[in-house]
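Why run this: before we spend reagent on co-expression, it is cheaper to look at a predicted model of the complex and decide which construct boundaries make sense. The entries below are exactly what would go into the expression plan.
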Amino acid sequence: MEKRVAFRSAWLPYALLAPQIAITIIFFFWPAVQAVWFAFQLQDAFGLQTEFVGLQNFAALFADEHYLASFQTTAVFSVLVAFFGIAISLLLATMADRVVRGALVYKTLLIWPYAVAAAVAGVLWAFMFAPSIGIVTYVLKRMGVDWNWIINGDQAMLLVVMASVWKQISYNFLFFLAGLQSIPRSLVEAAAIDGAGPVRRFWTVVFPLLSPTTFFLLVVNIVYAFFDTFGVIDATTQGGPAQATQILVYKVYYDGVKAADLGGSSAQSVILMLIVIALTVIQFRFVERRVQY
Amino acid sequence: MVENRPWLTVFSHAVLILGMLAVAFPLYVTFVASTHRLEDIMQVPMPLVPGDQFLANYSQVLAAGGTTGSKAPVSTMLFNSTVMALGIAIGKIAISIIASFAIVYFRFPLRMFFFWMIFITLMLPVEVRIIPTFKVVSDLGMLNSYVGLTLPLIASATATFLFRQFFLTIPDELAEAARIDGAGPMRFFRDVVLPLSRTSIAALFVIQFIYGWNQYLWPLLITSEESMYTAVIGISRMLVGGDAANEWNLIMATAMLAMLPPAVVVVLMQKWFVKGLVETEK
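The model came back. Tokens follow.
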């Protein structure tokens, strides 16, 4: 879409664009180019010498079982976060769409976790589930569950999934609610007249019509699980125990900042960039289709 | 309401109330923990009603931080978080609104090239280019400074897009009328575009304020001095050891303080928040 009317000036548009473009080049393009450049280099332990090693960093990564395990961890983590985040918020949004009384109160009380920082969400959940003093740990122990996420990898994964889902529910909820409210009432009413009960109506009418929203949220939630959950993990498990919760982003940070492996970390960055680009392309192709929907 | 099914309505309310309680439970536990002495919290199970140490704990963290881990006062951190959140929100809005004005209302060589250049930044979150970005900021001498905290995060494709989408919906007649009346582009921007963009600006401000306030990885990398910690970083620095060694009552008081400002913004500006959230993702 273009404007019919345009102003003319030889310098003004460039001046208006200059701040944005300058920051984009300095803080986005230059670092990204460097990440790609470092990915093909090997640096000695003191950072004094670098040599060009071609694809060696990438080959080393894919031969490293920790890295491959990190892929698997990320996949499990993001599927769990996306599935539970979407399922729970779809249930809540469907219910909120039904009720008339108190709708605003419910909405307000369900959306505030969006304002909580990922790291703070992690601290809250880590405290409730703390192995020795946590209140939920106490209840679990009473029920005969031995809970200690500091030594049990599966429980650590469960903890970061719960904290991440908790923080993301409000976002999914708002999008589902908007999606539900845009479904024409006449369709639902027609199904009701034909004798379909509420459950049947949901699965045959409402859910298919919501599929664009659901698909959009699926991509957004996967991106969220890939990148934005860094704070949750750093504030709770720090990738442990024994890398059970070391997702790809955390490994980039750990290898680059803590272990000072510049080449390896940059190669991981490049792989992550490719993943983000793929996810963004999927998202945008979908958004274009949604416009015609 | 399609039909009257009282039991289903009761069920809906029950599910919503349960969901609400589940969502609020961590907050309640945090609040309770922030009002007790450490010894009380260390008892298993910890008390589930608020204690009487509210003032003592909160004034302790605001004035002097923790007593064993980080001793940076939380009031300084809250100030830093505010500067960072406002800097990012205002900075992003300012540079994106003029950039999209240029892209929508002017014809000039390389227009689409610049547009795509901004577009591509959507694909490069900080997390994937951590170390090189850190190097650039360190070479520019911006470590431990407000400029270093905000500037690298204020280029935003989403804000530019939102404004572009909005500008495209402004009727062409307004620009024509402005030109006939002899108004230049900047006059048109100030007197027509800016007032019309008020809702978009408000919506974007809420989203970006929360985004800035909740930044974690970036301040973690570039702040090494306690005086530059943001509130979110401060909490993670107070976690010094195993779960029995942490001063949970003070950590939880800090967590409450760190959650409060963005939560207030979301609840009070709910309308703008929902609008901003739904529109920035289009």
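Chain B has a mean pLDDT of 85. Residues 74-105 of chain B form the longest helix (32 residues). Bring this page to Monday's planning discussion.
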